[in-house]
């Protein structure tokens, strides 16, 4: 049993939103009690005390869309790669990389990303993996890493026809096998979805195979209308817009995540709403790829559940929160919009998306909720409470201020030191794998 206290407690729970000197009692994998520091210490004198040292105690963060396979790309330059459009970004960098990503590289990527998540207060991720060099067994490599580092993870594999039918079939089977594994080994820490890349790389035949292999067991996680090439391909080759194609194949529904949704029209928005399908915005990645800005305000107005991801551009959810606000305001040329929408995406909607899969209350500190708790080393010099916490998040905090991370009741990091993990040894091992990986990509030694 832990008492994590002596901090400014932000619960995200309307029953008790804020305590200037509070904390939580953690018993097993759940929060047992929330209250004032002195009261908790007096009531549970034998509990191990974890000192927040005056920092901000808050729920762990959820990343609703990321890509573990891109973790080894940090600082990478591919010789001769100078993309002028989105397709060239995909084909010249990301597809080129995943065609060289072995199982060893997949495991190293997962280890690197999970350590970064711990250090930035992210306790739950929805990953969308691709490693077309070696597909079979790749999701289990990630699952093993997730168990080792203790991060709540929902995984899938990116089905695509881009590398031929054999690889496409392997990708379908990888999803099916991992879904079966999760069914046979139920856990509130590891779940499965059925992944697909983007519609312009998936034929009708492959969609039918995906639906058959899934057999209604879980939701789909797919990129939708990230670039206009997705829209053009659907219209020119199938006479339907992307969301309509998904509806035709039975892909949509309340357990399905549509990533990006930048170039969806109003008719498609209505389909998304009527089917209860979820969307996830990835603001920094979209701006970097110059593909446009998702119409989050319109999606939100229609009552669509819109979450926030990073697309692995970063692992810092607070960084993405800042960019989400700026991009929405810039998109409509209005400085007084977006605040409620983007903060809801991260602090309300992402936990709702997580709860659909993991079946435990996420994103709040309350009795019975999952014991996913972080402490931010943030010393405000202006008034601070639940009334203005989002303003402090957007203008004052970054993920790197995370000092302590607990997920599912397990202490993963304390005072910026990973618990039970030799970070230097892990980094050294990952570096050797990445050197080999970069060498294969650029035909040289590093």
Structure, described:
α4 links the parallel β7 (122-127) and β8 (152-155). Strands 1, 2, 3, 4, 5, 15, 16, 17 and 18 form a nine-stranded mixed beta sheet that branches. The chain has 446 residues and is an alpha/beta fold. It is 41% helix and 20% strand. α8 (242-248) packs parallel to α9 (266-275).
Characteristics:
single chain; 446 residues; alpha/beta; nine-stranded mixed beta sheet; five-stranded parallel beta sheet; 20% strand; globular
List the SSEs and their pairings.
Elements: E1 2-10, E2 18-27, E3 30-36, H1 37-43, E4 48-51, E5 56-59, E6 61-66, H2 86-98, H3 103-119, E7 122-127, H4 138-149, E8 152-155, H5 165-184, E9 190-192, E10 194-198, H6 204-214, E11 220-224, H7 228-238, H8 242-248, E12 257-260, H9 266-275, E13 278-281, H10 283-288, H11 296-301, E14 306-308, H12 317-332, H13 339-358, E15 373-376, H14 389-396, E16 402-407, E17 410-414, E18 417-418, H15 423-442
Parallel strand pairs: 1-4, 1-5, 6-7, 7-8, 8-9, 10-11, 11-12, 12-13, 13-14
Antiparallel strand pairs: 1-2, 2-3, 5-15, 15-16, 16-17, 17-18
Name the average pLDDT.
Answer: 97
- Tally the helices: 15
- Write down the Rg: 21 Å
Share of residues in strands? 15-25%
Low-confidence segments, ≥5 residues, pLDDT <50?
none
Structural class estimated from helices and strands = alpha/beta
Question: Could you give the distance between the termini?
Answer: 47 Å
Total number of strands = 18
* Helical residue percent band: 40-55%
- Main sheet characteristics: 9 strands, mixed
- Give the overall silhouette: globular
């Amino acid at each position: 049993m832990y008492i994590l206290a002596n901090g400014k407690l932000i619960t995200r729970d309307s029953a008790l939103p804020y305590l200037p000197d509070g904390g939580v009692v953690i018993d097993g994998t759940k929060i047992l009690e929330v209250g004032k520091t002195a009261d908790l210490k007096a009531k549970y004198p034998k509990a191990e005390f974890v000192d927040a040292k005056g920092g901000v105690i808050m729920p762990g963060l959820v990343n609703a869309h990321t890509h573990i396979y891109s973790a080894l790309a940090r600082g990478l330059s591919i010789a001769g790669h100078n993309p002028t459009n989105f397709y060239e970004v995909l084909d010249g960098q990301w597809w080129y990389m995943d065609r060289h990503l072995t199982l060893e590289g997949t495991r190293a990527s997962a280890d690197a990303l999970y350590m970064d998540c711990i250090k930035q207060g992210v306790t739950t991720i929805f990953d969308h993996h691709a490693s077309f060099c070696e597909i079979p067994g790749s999701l289990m490599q990630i699952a093993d890493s997730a168990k080792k580092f203790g991060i709540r993870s929902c995984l899938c594999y990116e089905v695509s026809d881009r590398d031929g039918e054999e690889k496409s079939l392997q990708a379908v089977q990888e999803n099916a096998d991992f879904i079966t594994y999760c069914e046979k080994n139920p856990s509130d820490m590891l779940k499965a979805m059925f992944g697909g890349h983007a519609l312009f790389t998936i034929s009708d035949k492959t969609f039918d195979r995906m639906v058959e292999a899934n057999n209604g067991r879980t939701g789909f996680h797919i990129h939708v209308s990230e670039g206009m090439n997705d829209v053009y391909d659907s219209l020119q080759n199938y006479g339907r817009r992307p969301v309509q194609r998904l509806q035709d194949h039975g892909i949509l529904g309340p357990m399905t995540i549509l990533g990006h949704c930048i170039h969806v029209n109003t008719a498609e928005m209505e389909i998304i709403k009527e089917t209860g399908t979820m969307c996830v915005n990835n603001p920094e990645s979209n701006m970097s790829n110059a593909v446009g800005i998702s119409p989050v305000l319109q999606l939100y107005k229609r009552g669509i559940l819109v979450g926030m991801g990073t697309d692995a551009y970063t692992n810092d959810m607070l960084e993405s929160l800042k960019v989400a606000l700026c991009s929405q305001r810039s998109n409509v040329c209005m400085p007084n919009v977006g605040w409620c929408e983007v903060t809801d995406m991260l602090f309300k909607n992402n936990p709702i998306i997580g709860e659909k899969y993991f079946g435990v209350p996420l994103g709040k500190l309350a009795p019975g909720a999952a014991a996913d708790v972080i402490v931010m080393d943030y010393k405000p010099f202006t008034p601070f409470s639940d009334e203005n916490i989002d303003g402090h998040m957007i203008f004052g905090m970054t993920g790197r201020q995370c000092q302590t991370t607990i997920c599912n009741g397990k202490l993963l990091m304390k005072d910026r030191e990973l618990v039970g993990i030799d970070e230097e040894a892990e980094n050294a091992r990952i570096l050797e794998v990445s050197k080999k990986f970069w060498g294969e990509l650029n035909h040289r030694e590093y």
